[in-house]
Input
Amino acid sequence: VEEQNEMNSFYQKS
Amino acid sequence: MFEARLVQSSIFKKVLEAIKELLNEATFDCSDSGIQLQAMDSSHVSLVSLNLRSDGFDQYRCDRNLSMGINLASMTKIMKCAGNDDIMTMKAQDNADSVTFMFESPNQEKMSDYEMKLMNLDQEHLGIPETDYSCVIKLPSAEFARICRDLSQFGESVVISCTKEGVKFSAAGDIGSANIKLAQTANVDKEDEAVSIEMQEKVSLTFACRYLNYFTKATPLSPQVCLSMSAEVPLVVEYKIGEIGHIRYYLAPKIEE
Output
């Protein structure tokens, strides 16, 4: 099973 | 006051085509250095980053930084009113709640202007650090579009694996499996047709086909596309926009549960 990551888990709010 | 003139309005039409399926609305940040846009799709799986440098415009003036919240469906309606050869000028007053698009035919016998209301958008800006990627793959953009289209028939996900020898795109699903391998081109007569790979470390990552297909809407902007990958970070898909800038798409990889 694959799960989709979201962008927020890689980059912080600026 | 903000004013930007572009002799080739077709560039702007293509930019809009490249983002409008991924985003419903977006903020165009205008400053002295040019026009920037950063926005995530509604599911926060991908991010679009557009940069149009002021020196790439035929005329450019931006006295005060201006954030224009734009409904992209409305903007598409307006850009449809421009001929491909028309000269386009975007204009807005400081603190304006609308932007005006002016189109001039090449012989200047037809002039039209369209005013569009701006929106207040809450936007979440992400800081994307400069990254040295393990693999940087350049390939013809039409080839990449073809691969994404072909593989999306097989499954929802594409595995992109890059080694020194080449890059492999794979998909599997109910009807079977598919593998497409591209080797680095040996002799490059035409730069636009080349496949080149710079690799520090092998990488294999899984991505949602659907988003890759959205990104390939940018294909008319550039003959080449650049894919940058490192383990466990988002893929970057970059299309140059002539001498004016670039559009980059970031896509979060899938993880095996």
User: Anything to note?
Assistant: The first strand of chain B starts at residue 2 and ends at 6.
